[in-house]
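As a warm-up, study this chain.
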Amino acid sequence: MSNSDCYSRSFWFVVYQKDISDFSSFIDILESFHCPVFVSPLHIDSDSPHYHVMLMFSGKKSINSLERKLKVAFADIPFFKLEICSDKVSCARYLCHLDNKYKTHYSPSNVVEISGADYSQYSYDSRTKDSVFKDILKDIDSYSSPISFDSLLMLYLTNDSLKFTCMTSPRYSFIIREFLNSHNLHSSQ
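Now compare it with the structure written out below.
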C-alpha cells in the first residue's frame, strides 16, 4: 500500500526543540487542528532535544493530506516525518518512555494535553488498571449502605481521575455495575 492510501485516526511525529522558535505559538497551531493532541515533555536523552506529538481524530484521515496541512501550518519548521500511530496506548506511553527501561523516563504530568486530550486514559498499563479496579471493588465493599453507580462515578470524577477512567472503561464498567447491584442487595437486607 502506498503512503497516499494510508488512513488512520491517530498520527505522531517528532519535532526538534531547535526548530521551534516559540513553544506557545507551536501549541496554538496544534490547537487550531481541533482534535485531541498530546505533546511529550522535552526529551533531552539524545544529542537533539525533541518533543513527540500525537494527534487523534474522530474519523480517519489520509496521511498525505494531513502531512500537507501540517507543512502549511508549520511552514517555519523543517518538516518532520508523520507516522501512523497504530496503537494509541503504546504510542501514548512512549511519549514518556514508560515501558522502556533503557531510556530516560519522563513524568506523565508534564505531557501537554490539547483539545480535551486526557493522557491518563492512555498512559496506564493493564496491571495498573487491574489494581485500580480492585481498589474500586474494595471501596464499594466499604460502604455499609447502598450506593449508586452514578454517585460513585461523580465521587471519582471530582477526586480520582484514574478510578473514573476505570469505571467508564468497557472492560470494567459492567462488572462494577454487577458488583454494585450485589452489594446494594446485601446492604439493604
